[in-house]
Write a structure and sequence with these properties.
- Helix content is 18%, strand content 37%.
- It has 224 residues and is α+β, with helices and mostly antiparallel strands.
- It has 2 domains: 177 residues; 33 residues.
- The strands form 3 sheets. Strands 1, 2, 3, 5, 8, 9 and 14 form a 7-stranded antiparallel β-sheet that branches. The protein has a 6-stranded antiparallel β-sheet with strand order 6-7-4-11-13-12, covered by helices on one side. Strands 10-15 form a two-stranded antiparallel ribbon.
- Strand 2 and strand 3 form a beta hairpin.
- It holds the Pfam family PIG-X.
- Its main location: endoplasmic reticulum.
Length: 224
Amino acid sequence: CAVADVQAACRGSAVSQELLQEGFHRELLVRAELGAAGQQAGGCVVAARTRLPAGAYVDPDELASLRLHNVTQAVLIPDVVDVEAPEYSAPELVVLLYLQPDPRCSHCFRAVLPVHGRYHRPAGNGQDAVVALKSAEVLACCCGALLSAECWEPAEVEAPCSGSGDHLCQWYSAAHKPAYEELILQVPVGLTQHSSLVCVVTLLATVLCSSLILAAVCKYGDFS
């Protein structure tokens, strides 16, 4: 697992991102330790804002299911995501991931976000495509309360105070100094020399499936 640590400027605060699993379907584990800033953010909602490049996306339907079961709370910007779009025609995606308190550590928060790799153009060298995930930004929302300007500053975020609410509030960001600026996601890609074989197999499968559907319609269809 690759870990990107970010040391915050305010007295020992830190946030880390870690990629779990392999292949196209991964999990992004985000941890935040606010240190002294956590004492000021007591009772506030803590979130991580991360930007996913075109090579990665979050499935809105999967996220809605996780939100329904209170597993993961997050807001997607934009909220409409084309999960079938390839990397070279997809836009960047901003995710506001709401973090939950970590019972093993005071002033610590964490959350897991399912992240999927998009299909890339086939390559001839057999190497995986590289998708660079930038460091996350820690945000806090206190719904009217003010945080110390020493550790926090107002952030331009159009998002509700919680993952299950619609009320917008003022978010504050903690300044970060990245130790590692990027987290690398490796996505398998196809080989260009297999293009002809893939096209032929796809065509044959399409013709076969279409024939079976047409035969079933002709046999069982009611045309009266």
